[in-house]
Amino acid sequence: MAEKLVKNRIGLWLDIFLNNLGTIIFVISFAVLLLFCLNGIYNVFVPVSFQSGANQFSFKFPLGLKNGHCYFSLLSLAIIKNLFYGILTLLTFLVFGLLMGVGNTLEPDRRGMIDKKGYVRLYLSKISYWTSYGVTQLLQSVPLPIFLLTFVILVQVSSLPVSWRMPLNMLILGFLLSPRLSESFAAQVKMLRRFEFMDTARSTGMSLWRLYGSHIIHYQMGRSFYMLLLQVPFYSLMYEIFLSYLNYGDQNATIGLFIKDSIQLLPSEIILISQGMPMSIRTLQLAIPLIIIAMITINLLILRNRAFKEKVIY
Amino acid sequence: MDKMSSKAKYFIQRLPAGVFVSLASFLILFFALQIFQSDDVSYLSIGEFLNHVLRGELQTNIEAQKISILSIIGPSFLAVLLAFSFLVVFSLLISFLPRLYDGFVLKIVVLIHSSLAFLSGFHIIFFSILWLLITGNQDVSRSVIILLAALSSGLYLDITEQTLIFVNKMNQSDYIVAVRALGQSVWKAGRRELLIWCLTLFRSSWLLILSNVIIAEIIFSSGGIGHILRRELLIPAIEGVNVELNAVLAAIFGLIMGIFILNLLIDITLEYLRKWRRN
């Protein structure tokens, strides 16, 4: 009896552990990423420590040294930089997506066109509708990588300062991604116009922006909108790695450059280790950027599964 | 007569907007890429370019040979079709298997399905980098590219979920219940609905699969549009070499025309199935 109870208790703890495995992974990886981010922010204000030393473990340099620089600080700075790129892409995406979404809903209507003001409003709505509709259709007629690579090469060839290139690429990426928001936004607005509660909300004095913000974006689009908000910085990170792999990336430390190093050096390192070479801190340095990206992706997936997933009845 | 005229009207209505959009996107890319074209090859007019392309004269610095548009865009489009058919067949299997069979194999299939659904959240770039890290070389077969394109960017999860919802809805619908009760063929009653669902799914997801395929082709430098883009445009532009863009422009031209024609065909077929076809 007692043995059974103990067994059951172990089973219970195992069950609890397995049921909350996602949360545990999320919390641990989030804490690690937060540590990197905080160190990065600290290093933005306090310069990266510069010291030559032996290639071994110490608490001062947790991940060793690379070309005399603290690897942990370099990686933290890279993460902060990619975070900045992500926020830049997200802002562009939001601005263009919402503007084009509103434009897509303004289909020209001849009602109320009695005076001069009415004509002005008609032509304004015509211009905004056809511009946003045309741009949305144009961006969706060709796969994203084609437009993106063309503009990236144009930026590369241009006489812009080197440090401006990657932010500009990220702005372009945000613009190219924006139809994903504008299409769904316009569809929701067009659908909701038919319902009476929208007229009621307008008649009670609710402003148009409040209506868009609360009714349409928060309640109606809800899950898909917040998923897009989460995905866009992730997309910017992925495309940054892609461009770095093709030598179109940033010259200074970014995650893409670290990953490029890993792609070039890690396979041969693994072969050497399998032949009997002892593992050094260099192997860890090559592996850790990939682990960080895996952490970011898995956090995103867990968030999606827990918070934003649609329930499907099997 | 009235029916015919409405059909013709529909086809004519669809054409101008699509033609305008595809022409505009091609012109933007054409003039944007003309900057890199070396001076002795640059085209003065679109007509001259089309003349070259249609005769298959896409001679380049690297490879002096005739290349046709079909040989450039063909592999990518074929990869998209194969990836989509794999996704649809697998998701139909997943949604029908619990109705037909219950046992140990089903548990394994569901386990594979849930793990694939979780993994499909990864981006194609992440998968490709992982593949490069594990294998250490760029040479991959086409089947790997097709699998990577199908199983990334959330495509697998979306398509299997939509299939499950569709199959449940269809099984509970009145006409299927009636057909079952009468002992008639379910396939005959439901095939139109199935085709409509399949085409709408393809219409909404095939461009995403195509962009995945292009990214994988660029990273692994194998076959199709991505390979041409990397070999003829991306590497020469970063090295500052004089670029000949005949093949790239032809690939983009073929790509845009292919997208336009396929989308138009899908739209027309869907309209035909919805309005004029019964069973």
Features:
heterodimer, A: 314 residues, mainly alpha, two-stranded antiparallel ribbon, 11 helices, 2 strands, 77% helix, globular, B: 279 residues, flat
What does this structure look like?
The complex is a heterodimer of chains A (314) and B (279). By secondary structure, chain A is mainly α. Chain A is built from 11 helices and 2 strands, in the order H-H-E-E-H-H-H-H-H-H-H-H-H. Chain A has a two-stranded antiparallel ribbon. The radius of gyration of chain A is 26 Å and the shape is globular. Chain B has 11 helices and no strands. The radius of gyration of chain B is 23 Å and the shape is flat. At the A-B interface, helix 4, helix 5, helix 9, helix 10 and helix 11 of A face helix 1, helix 5, helix 7, helix 9 and helix 10 of B.
Care to count the β-strands of chain B? 0
Strands of chain A, total number: 2
Radius of gyration of chain B: 23 Å
Main pleated-sheet profile of chain B:
none
Strand content of chain B: under 5%
Global mean pLDDT of chain B: 81
Strand order of the largest sheet of chain A: 1-2
The percent range for strand residues of chain A is under 5%
Assembly status: heterodimer
Report the average pLDDT across residues of chain A. 81
Main sheet makeup of chain A = 2 strands, antiparallel
The structural class of chain A is mainly alpha
Q: Outline of chain B, from the CA principal axes?
A: flat
The radius of gyration over CA of chain A amounts to 26 Å
Which stretches of chain A of 5+ consecutive residues score pLDDT under 50? none
Instruction: Look at the helices and sheets of chain B and give the structural class.
Output: mainly alpha
Q: What is the terminal-to-terminal distance of chain B?
A: 22 Å
Estimate percent helicity of chain A: over 70%
Helix content of chain B: over 70%
Q: Please provide the ordered H/E string of secondary-structure elements of chain B.
A: HHHHHHHHHHH
